[in-house]
Amino acid sequence: MRWKLEHILKKGGGGILLEDDAVLAINKPTGLLVLPDRYDHTLLNLYDLLKEIFGTIFVVHRIDRETSGVVLFAKTAEAHAQLSTAFEQRQVEKKYRAIVAGTSHTDSDSIILPIIENEHGIRKMKIDTKKGKESRTDYAVMERFDGYILVEARPHTGRTHQIRVHLSAIGLPILADSLYGDGRGFFLSAIKRNYQGKEEEQPLLRRTALHAFSLSFSHPVTRENIVIEAPLPKDMEAVLKALRKYKTR
Fold it and tell me: What's the pTM?
């Protein structure tokens, strides 16, 4: 069954980043769930794929279906316990890359805004200064364009949709985010003057432009400091290439 996993990952631009007797790190393609969907158990997900191969596998953390990038699993209960504790105690450094719409007057900042589930919509979060849970995201501008920014986001807490909610709250919604942005795909015609496509235009990017770029943690067995990185996927690279060509300041 391993060929099936590798085929699915490769087809989506992902792959296995690290594997030993204790841990497994995967570059998850966009569109693939980490865990089974609570309503539709027929949807493809990493957990079920890995169970077919290893029998027992432990999810250490998760990222959204549309988000691509590094996801960490444990092969043993002991490794899972240690890694889970490291996440809970904020000993794991997580770095994300996001392409956002808008402008920022600072090169880096911390977003400290409490988050709570939106009672008017399942699976959607909101800022609530009275009832929300403590949440902090540091961000840094990596590249500026006319009306767009490539940012690196480092969440210090692990709230649902945290980066998406926080960036939207400060006026920097992630491209194509259907919950916290405009939800529209990114089209070349939107930034290229006098665009003339021969056929019906397809978006360069269809999903939330968020990528789990790296994880840094202490290996549960060797205690070695591990840094795992996943390169940006093709759709986000395509957007950046277009922005560099047509929207460079």
Answer: 0.94
